[in-house]
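Hi V.,

You were right to ask for the full record rather than a summary. Here it is.
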Amino acid sequence: MEKTLKDFLAFGKIYDEKSIKELNSLALAYVGDAVFELLVRTMVLKGNIPAHKLHTKSIKYVQAKGQKELIEKVLQSLSEEELGVYNRGKNSKPHTVAKNQTLGDYMEATGLEALFGYLYLLDRLDRLVEIFGEMIN
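Predicted structure:
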């Protein structure tokens, strides 16, 4: 049986909306971190650029300080539900913090990642891309 990547990634078929909404905010952030990283890597991939330069370009977006600056651009446009997910992630208790990041930046970045994980798992990809586009522009 042939499966597409979209079929494989169709988490809505594995989890129902209620179970996604009940996931721990750090679990949402875990998934959201990967989603955000993939969006950034796709965005910086322009032309024939060496891998180390791609990495350098993406760092400013994926480090906690960069994510904090990006989420601040869109907070006003988030729905009440999205803001709630962001705040749950932001207010979660991290087990570790990167030594080169502040706790405040790290917590806001965790909120962003929780939101991205939430939207991804609910298959709200249009909204996810819309928010990402607002952040980058």
